[in-house]
Write a structure and sequence with these properties.
The chain is α/β, with parallel strands linked by helices. It has two domains: about 10-105 and about 200-245, D-Maltodextrin-Binding Protein, domain 2, CATH 3.40.190.10; about 110-200, Periplasmic binding protein-like II (D-Maltodextrin-Binding Protein, domain 2, 3-Layer(aba) Sandwich). The protein is about 30% helix and about 25% strand. It contains eight helices and 13 strands. Strands 1, 4, 5, 6, 7, 8, 9, 10, 11, 12 and 13 form an eleven-stranded mixed sheet that branches. The longest helix has 16 residues, at about 215-230. The model has no long low-confidence stretch (mean pLDDT about 90).
Amino acid sequence: MSDDPEPPATYPATVRALAPHGVLRVGVNLSNFLLVSGTDDDGSPIGVSPSLAAALARALDIDHELVTYLEPGEVVDGLARGMIDVGNVGADPSRAEQVVFTPPYCEIEATYLVPAGSSITTTTEVDVPGVRIASKEGAAYTLWLDRNVARAEVVHTNTIEQSFQVFVADRLEVLAGLRPRLLEEAKRLPGSRVLDGRFTSVQQAIGVHKDRGGDALAYLQRLVAWAIDSGLVAGTIEEHRVNGLSVASPPAA
């Protein structure tokens, strides 16, 4: 852990690049219950993601505004359209056409739930003909499945809850999701099992439009490294009592 409690120094040009309107507009994905864990008295989101947004604004010494979205893809679209300045969202190659990402500051395991009596025991046994995987469209783990599953069928749904309902009602072989959520789903379905291991991890990062320039991204990269090394990320996870969220490894120097 770093002995330096202060974030990396900023320069006026960097601040202007990151927040050209004078206020840092931060996109927050409300659908990730590990990163946005509730709301305060005025309805503003609270959790790991909003806390890190506030830390970034303090480092830049400017005010910030949380701009909430219901889906991660909407955060990326907001960045691409210039509606927000930075976005806290899962970094995925399919989202990188106009947006660049820092290294991750935290990670979430994605795995599978199988029903009672299933012969599937490991994540590597899922991608075979005849297996249907219920998964929420647009989620980072679903994007991974869309790129990597070759023989099984990915059944897209509109919401996480709908994924569970389709999995049960249509007797699908597998439900994909984040481990903490699947552990809760298993309680609703007697005999079901959450598989050990993971098929991927969703890496939460800070995204910024490519046009903001290399200095802006370089500063965000230093900020993420500092946030990990100083213990800020770990402390924020502990503060919000989030289970299932792990601090990412510090980026290589």
